[in-house]
Amino acid sequence: MNAPPNPGEELRVARERFDEADDFTLAVEEEFALLDPETLALVNRFEELEAASKGTELDGMLVGELIASEVEVRTGRCESFPEAAARVGERRAQLLRLAEAHGVVLCSAGTHPWSPWQEQRIIDTPHYRLNDELLRYVVWRNNTFGLHVHTAIRGADRAVRVAGALRTFLPDLLALSASSPFTENVFTGLHSARSQLFTKMFPRCGIPDAYAGWDDYERYVRFLYDTGSITKHTQIWWSVRPHLAFPTVEIRICDGQPQLGESLALAALLHSLTVRIARALDEGEPLPSCPPALIEENFWRAIRYGLPGELIDLRAYPSVRVRPARAALEELVEWVLPAAEEVGAASYLAVPGANAAERQIARHEAGGTLREVYAAEVLEPARV
User: Fold this and answer.
1) Which residue range is the domain that position 317 belongs to?
2) How far apart are CA 238 and CA 292, in angstroms?
3) C-alpha span between 87 and 107 (Å, rounded)
4) What is the mean pLDDT of the chain?
5) Greatest CA separation found in the chain?
6) What is the mean pLDDT of residues 364-383?
7) pLDDT tens, 263-306?
């Protein structure tokens, strides 16, 4: 594999960008399945929609995401959370109009319940051709849909430490966002099959190590380049990462959200939590620290049992405390509230009575077919 011409220069520029970043600006990215309106099966139509977006309000905001039956839509950089929230709604409405005009419907659950991965075409770009060549079966199986939030953090050392502190909270965020109990015509028994397919199969994925600061993190990235383990920084697919192209900390653990209100509530929590941790670091407030194996234990609990399950209270470690995931999320919302008020996100925060995985499982257990279960989550104008 060939590394970029100068990884050292890439890292130097990234550090400069972090040191000059506008604190707490943000961007939200949502991934949607492209569906046949009659069968609700995945359809390989991305290139058609991307071409049709040229010259519209979506020009430059639609991005290919591995398979041609998927599209990512971006808010672009937003100065405040209220701006980002408005932009998420606008982008959904714009994408919905574009898709309807071309006979496509959309859904943002974490997986598709039945469409075979063998029928999904990988889009023809240099980036995804390389991933196909490198990962083969691992990338073929990754027919998944997520939500990512980028929060700008000023200071390279600070950004690395914020990302490290976020690790403890990632299972809570996954439990809240879980929306993928079905895949390959199977009720998996999981609340987030997406996480099992993606984070447990891809290399350099899932919960990262913690790094003391930028120099420590840079040594790791340089080592990956020097050993030929990566050729691009985006081949570090962690569930939270300092992003080298943007001066942001990106949270990537969450399943896609079928409903707009759930998407906004989730994005508000991700952004507010990042800001809350940055403020805690600024003020010397102690943050949770526990063995990585315990974070992985909670990660599994979130994958398997989701929001109705239980999580270990890692903030109380080494004390032994287990409590309902929903209670953990309510505690987390309370803890981030000062930061949420600072960035204008407080009014969006909510823990739902039932998230998307719970809704789908309930319909399935009541006798609904996979199509009926999935159809109830498909994006409709009334939900935008």
Assistant:
1) 7-383
2) 14
3) 18
4) 95
5) 57
6) 91
7) 999 999 999 999 999 999 999 999 988 999 999 999 999 999 99
User: Does the residue 230 lie in any domain?
Assistant: yes
> 324 and 310 in contact (C-beta within 8 Å)?
yes
CA distances from 91 to 45, 83, 143, 215, 298 (A): 18, 12, 22, 38, 33
> What is d(CA 368, CA 29) in angstroms, rounded to the nearest whole number?
31
116-172 pLDDT per residue, tens: 999 999 999 888 888 899 999 999 999 999 999 999 999 999 999 999 999 999 999
Element of type H or E holding 191: none
CATH number at residue 80: 3.30.590.20
**What pTM does this model have?**
0.96
For the chain, report the end-to-end CA distance as a whole number of angstroms.
44
In the chain, how many domains are there? 1
The H or E element that residue 107 is part of is: strand 105-107
Q: What is the pLDDT of residue 238?
A: 97
The whole-angstrom separation of Cα 146 and Cα 381 is 21
Within a domain: residue 2? no
Domain-embedded: residue 1: no
Exposed, middle or buried by CB within 10 Å (0-12, 13-18, 19+), for 136?
A: exposed
Residue whose tokens read 């990106």? 250
Using the 8-state DSSP alphabet, how is residue 119 labeled? G
Give the integer Cα–Cα distance in Å for 201 and 206. 9
For 106, list phi and psi in degrees, rounded to 5. Answer: -130, 150
Judge whether 18 and 242 are in contact, CB under 8 Å.
yes
| Inside any domain, residue 350 | yes
